[in-house]
Every structure is written in C-alpha cells, then in structure tokens.
Amino acid sequence: MQFTDPEIIAEYITYPSPKGHGQVRGYWVRPAKATGKLPAVVVVHENRGLNPYIEDVARRLAKAGFIALAPDGLTSVGGYPGNDDKGRELQQTVDPEKLMNDFFAAIEWLMKHDATRGKIGITGFCYGGGVANAAAVAYPELGAAVPFYGANQGQKSPDEGRIPPQLALCRGCLQYIHAHEVTCPHCDADVAAAEAVHQTDRARQQAIINTLTGLLGMPRNTLM
After folding, report:
1. Which of 170, 165, 167 is nearest to 213 (CA)?
2. Which of 64, 108, 110, 141 can bridge 221 by disulfide, Cβ–Cβ 3.0-4.6 Å?
3. Are 16 and 96 in contact (CB under 8 A)?
4. Could you read off the pLDDT of 159-212 as tens digits, one per residue?
5. How does strand 8-17 pair with strand 22-31?
6. Measuring CA to CA, which residue among 94, 27, 87, 84 is closest to residue 60?
C-alpha cells in the first residue's frame, strides 16, 4: 500500500519518552475520512528499525479503520538507516531498557491522545513480538496484544505461567488464546491470527487486522 493512498493520512511525528530516550520519531497513520475517536495500535518493528515493511503494516491498519503508530526504535542513533543489515547493527548499540521504554511510551501517549478512545492494542514482529508480550504484562489495561514470534515474558496477571509466543491476548477477559482457536470462548472475539505467520506477508497482515478488529471492537475489514 502506498504512502499516498487517498484513504489514509500518513506522516512522521515525535512523541515524548521520558523514561527512554526523551523523544521518539514515529510513523503516524490514520483513516482520512474517519469521524470521532478511534482505537489505536502500536506497531513494533523487528531488530532493525522502522523499515518499509513495518510502515506498510501501519498503513494497512489505518485503511482498516485504526490509528496506527509505528515507532522507530533507532531514533536515538539517527533512525532507520535504509538498510536492514545496518539497522540490525545499530539496534545492538541501543540501551535495551531505554528502547523498551520508548515503545511503552507510545502506548501511554496513545492512551491519552485526543484522537483515540483509549482502546489501545499492540502488535510486533520478532523483537517486536517480545515487546508486545512485555507490554501485555506491564499494561493490563491494553485492549489487545498480538505478538508474532517474540520472546516470552514473565507473566504477572491472574493467569499463572508465562505468555507463549504467537498468541492473541484478550484483555477483556484476561485469557490467553492459542493461535489455532477461532474465537475466544469467553467473549467471542476473533483471535485466529498466528497460524498465518509463515504464510505470505498479505496473509499475515490480514491476520493481524482480523485479530485486532475483534479485540478492539472494530467491524471486520478486508485488505485492498
């Protein structure tokens, strides 16, 4: 999906990260014709910075009716360098605690933003999947967390154990739903997502949108 798609408005913004690196650059995308407040999703990149693929995920979420914010975790070292290999090298130089706080700051910023209705989700890939898992532990008020092959995080919710990768987390009922399940048995939210991880990028992006629309209360939409 192109930056210039008439159905979305895409721009780069900065948001505060007081416990991280102070300011973070992010890709901010929203539906062009939406009225009223919308649910929002933080999109977390792999261990290489805000590359074109992650920006495309953000655009597709916006076309499906969400506000999407994709932070660049490499902001403190000059931003995504335009090459994934160089991006991986750069991310290894970033303080990991401050980096995590930069993504957490995106959640907190969206929760308070006038354009959102406070219903916030997060999705991430590889390193970003680990961030999504960590966010599910740190922010029980999250509407949804959809990690893709991310590191596990110790869990401190009413459900004991650890958060496995490739799950959709329904915070409406505090249940952890395995990828092969079609709906959450407790709230009927659509959570069939992670089974598409190893399919095409289009299938994976559609799976993310299907899951988030169910958990954040948006009508189902299909990618164009």
Report:
1. 170
2. 64
3. no
4. 434 444 445 555 444 455 554 454 555 555 555 444 433 444 555 566 666 667
5. antiparallel
6. 27
